[in-house]
Specification:
eight-stranded mixed beta barrel; 10 helices
């Protein structure tokens, strides 16, 4: 019955649920025939299963993460994964909040680990600190994605592809010129390529960085600001670098103790529009988030509610079956 509460009371109950790790079993009513009691038992068992599955998956992920962080992403192991072609691009469709149509793809590096299964390499990206390996991983994902991008364009699917780019690569001499040549050789329009750049306070703006950014932007490649450090001034970042998209952290969509999440998203949206940038949010998991995000000025969204990341073959099958999507709906 907490769902019928309003304002601060509802927020307080939801915060209590999150903090105490409780689950809402919904409303039940006992009747003389016992049907209500049976319903209560079924709900209790369902909630118990949810808790077990949730805790179990968290433990499994934690165990995998610990193992990977300890040894699996050493330079030797990562080199072996690259040579064995275990690191491959996966694609998550990105939808326009206004039309509901697929307008782009987020390209993520998936490590098809023989022991732990498929996992997003970016999740453990902090362990890949070697500049040479960062470059190899980037091109390992880029080259096959460009081939798919070109083919989709040839069948009439005008989409943008977004790639995660480590800031350190922007410091490599002539990286921008090399990347432009690779994309041109692949036959993909430069304006359809986006680079998601994570910004932190420790990022150094060297002369090579400035040169690479100038070359990329002049060629038509777009930069997206993502995972920026809260200690950094967003206004200063946007003033210094010509980002055309801002990706908002998906944690703002999840239950939290802050009642200011919507104001934060709205403020970022207004700031983005003032510099002709679009706002992207990932991690959308429920239909309830859609009208909420539209009202706050979010332009593009992605998440498992729409489509989970897919290998190239599955994505191509999806695009061939679906020529256009008229309404926002979950994947099946």
């Amino acid at each position: 019955m907490s769902e019928s509460l309003g304002g601060g009371l509802k927020w307080g109950v939801q915060s209590l649920q999150v903090k105490s790790k409780k689950y809402n079993a919904c409303f039940y009513e006992l009747t003389e025939g016992g049907a209500g009691f049976d319903s209560l038992v079924r709900k209790a068992l369902a909630v118990k299963k949810i808790v077990i599955d949730h805790c179990g998956s968290n433990r499994r992920l934690a165990g995998q993460g610990d193992g990977l962080h300890e040894s699996q992403l050493s330079e030797d192991i990562t080199n072996q994964a690259l040579k064995a072609k275990q690191i491959q691009p996966y694609f998550q469709p990105r939808l326009c909040m206004g039309t509901g149509s697929i307008v782009g793809m987020q390209v993520v590096a998936q490590w098809l680990h023989p022991e732990y299964g498929a996992g997003v390499l970016e999740k453990f990206g902090g362990m890949v600190t070697c500049p040479v390996l960062q470059r190899e991983i980037f091109y390992c994902v880029l080259n096959p994605a460009l081939r798919l991008h070109r083919y989709l364009g040839s069948i009439g699917e005008s989409l943008t592809f977004s790639y995660s780019l480590d800031w350190g690569l922007l410091g490599d001499k002539q990286f921008g010129e090399e990347l432009v040549k690779v994309i041109k050789a692949a036959g993909v329009p430069l304006k359809h390529v986006f680079l998601d750049v994570a910004w932190a306070e420790t990022n150094l703006m060297s002369l090579d960085c400035i040169e690479n950014i100038t070359v990329l932007v002049s060629a038509g490649i777009c930069l997206c600001l993502c995972r920026y450090d809260v200690r950094c001034s967003l206004i200063k970042i946007l003033a210094d670098i010509p980002f055309t998209q801002i990706k908002i952290c998906s944690s703002l969509l999840k239950p939290s103790f802050s009642i200011n999440n919507d104001q934060i998203i709205k403020s970022v949206s207004l700031l983005a529009k003032s510099v002709s940038a679009k706002v992207v949010i990932d991690g959308v998991e429920t239909q309830n988030a859609l009208p909420y995000l539209k009202d706050l000025g979010v332009d593009l969204a992605q998440g498992d509610f729409f489509y989970s990341p897919k290998p190239a073959a599955e994505l191509l099958a999806l695009m061939l079956e679906r020529k256009s999507i008229k309404t926002l709906k979950p994947s099946v």
